[in-house]
Amino acid sequence: MKTIGQQNRLLFLMKITLVLTLFSLFPLCQKAEAESNLPGDGITTNPRSLLVDLHYGIPSHIWSDRLYYNFQMATLSLTYEKESGLWPFTKNKELVKSFLLEFRLSRIWGKDIQLSEDQVSKETWNKAKQEGTDPTVDWDHYQIGLTPYVRFYYPLTKAIRLYFELGLGMTLLNEPLIENGTTWNFLFSGGFGLDCKFKTPFYCFLKMEHFSNGGQLWKVYSDERVIGPESLVFGIGMRFPL
């Protein structure tokens, strides 16, 4: 089982990897800008695109009541994007606004994931406490989801765009992560990325993802148990203009 120190080191390595990746991509973006045949144009836009990306997540902790150690999450996403125009940002700067609809297929796996008292039966909890441990569970699950996003691009150059996005959707697991849990969950996602115009446009990103069935609010309406895994996610993808 990973300690908090090990977890923090892993998060630090993920951040360093993102920074190094961005620096490695920057020369390619500069080359694309130099070769651009759009002199004098303002903001580069892609009215409609298909986005394909892979991303990988490790446990993090912001909204949930605890950090679920040891699980991992890998996702393949197919996203339709429609850029819808400009959004005033400053007096002399506008952002490109877009709407996205993402379909995802994820695998969630891990061993010895610690659970809290309200996520297991009284018998399981008492047995674990008698043994001097917390109850744990192993995950090997699949999840599909459909999530709308809103995204804002900040053009750095004709070839490079920094973006920020927020999304809220629904997901479905092949089986609950815990006994008497739910297979459906809300998904909240937010983060930032770098969109680069090259021969094949591509992008990379870092974001946070949280999925759960509503937490304490759900308990008001049902006795099903709640769980809210969160991930720090790094990914890379390609853009295919339509």
Strand content: over 45%
Strand order of the largest sheet: 1-2-3-4-5-6-7-8
Radius of gyration: 21 Å
- N-C termini distance: 46 Å
Shape: elongated
CATH topology: Porin
Number of strands: 8
| Helix content, binned percent | 10-25%
In CATH, what is the class? Mainly Beta
Task: Indicate the multimeric state.
Answer: single chain
Largest sheet: 8 strands, antiparallel, barrel
Number of H/I helices:
3
Word description of this protein:
The protein has three helices and eight strands, in the order αβββαββββαβ. The protein is an alpha+beta fold and 242 residues long. An eight-stranded antiparallel barrel has the order 1-2-3-4-5-6-7-8. A hairpin with a 2-residue loop joins strand 2 and strand 3.
Features:
single chain; 242 residues; alpha+beta; Porin; eight-stranded antiparallel beta barrel; 3 helices; 8 strands; disordered N terminus
Describe the structure concisely:
It contains three helices and eight strands, in the order H-E-E-E-H-E-E-E-E-H-E. It has 242 residues and is α+β, with helices and mostly antiparallel strands. It has a single domain, classed as Porin.
